[in-house]
């Protein structure tokens, strides 16, 4: 049975990775699960300088999911490189660094700084709904998506995953724009912009007013968008959005995802990513799938 998948020349032992911002750089989770079992660890967003994030409260529960407006709090690339890369290097898994920025120059500074670090791939977040500048400002206009992709590709030494926003009218247009800019891989979906109101306090549940909705509530939208993106471009796709277990992951793979990310599920069940790896193997045994590639995009 072959569970290996190839993303732009990078071979993952299986298609399961962690979704950025839900797994730190794996330190806390490594006390519970074996990071060696994961296809890849995708880190929290890293910027050129430390970002303080948004005012609190920054998280609220919703039916079948959560709203977050963390605002990409992170310690900046120098701390990340010194502290988190050596930690992750201890494991036999691929390292994918999620990059955030407010301007094109910010993104490029991080990408250039990571060029000689032992990082397998870069995931460029142009889809965070919780920061005013950058993030989603790049991700909602196809011309901007193509332009930032092209710029990043000029400087990147590692293959580039462009992370797309679901907060758009036509995901196929965005996928094609990233492909035209030279993206190696696409990942989707980031969170959907949502709002929750606390009726007792008569105010917004998160201080930012709006936040990103994630978790099983968004899964059908995510599966639809992965299907549409996979059919719009030739690039491999990393699918995510509400994956709680292997059954959910297989759904994304059948829709066209070569790999999948487990996100919000990690908060509810820290074993979710590892269980998803084993569950995909069980599915392959049950249906006599010899190579995971056989089922990528098998539903048309
Ligand atoms: C608390 C939290 C923090 C997140 N931080 C990031 C981030 O730093 N960069 C990024 O690209 N996506 C970030 N995301 C989005 C997730 O990686 C993922 O795209 C989204 O949550 C959908 O997947 P899920 O429903 O499985 O969580 C974050 C999501 C959550 C819930």
Produce the secondary structure layout.
Blueprint (H helix, E strand, L loop, with lengths): L4 E3 L2 E3 L3 E3 L21 E3 L16 E4 L2 E4 L8 H13 L4 E6 L4 H10 L7 E5 L10 H4 L2 H14 L4 E4 L7 H10 L4 E4 L3 E4 L1 E2 L4 E2 L5 E5 L4 H14 L4 E3 L6 H10 L3 E4 L2 H4 L3 H15 L14
Bound molecules: flavin mononucleotide.
Oligomer: single chain
Largest sheet: 8 strands, parallel
Q: What is the tally of beta strands?
A: 16
How large is the radius of gyration? Answer: 18 Å
Small molecules in complex: flavin mononucleotide
Portion of residues in beta strands equals: 15-25%
Q: What average pLDDT do the residues reach?
A: 96
Q: How are strands sequenced across the largest beta sheet?
A: 3-16-15-10-9-8-7-4
Describe the structure.
This protein has 300 residues and is α/β, with parallel strands linked by helices. Helix content is 31%, strand content 20%. It has 9 helices and 16 strands. The chain has helices spanning 77-89, 104-113, 136-139, 142-155, 171-180, 219-232, 246-255, 265-268, 272-286; strands at residues 5-7, 10-12, 16-18, 40-42, 59-62, 65-68, 94-99, 121-125, 160-163, 185-188, 192-195, 197-198, 203-204, 210-214, 237-239, 259-262. The strands form 4 sheets. It has an 8-stranded parallel beta sheet. It has a 4-stranded antiparallel beta sheet with strand order 5-6-14-11, with no helix packed on it. A two-stranded antiparallel ribbon has the order 1-2. Strand 9 (160-163), helix 5 and strand 10 (185-188) form a beta-alpha-beta unit. Helix 5 (171-180) crosses helix 6. The chain is globular, with a radius of gyration of 18 Å. The structure holds flavin mononucleotide (FMN). Flavin mononucleotide (FMN) binds at residues 19-22, 44-45, 68, 70, 72, 98, 125, 128, 163, 190-191, 214-215, 218, 240-243, 263-265.
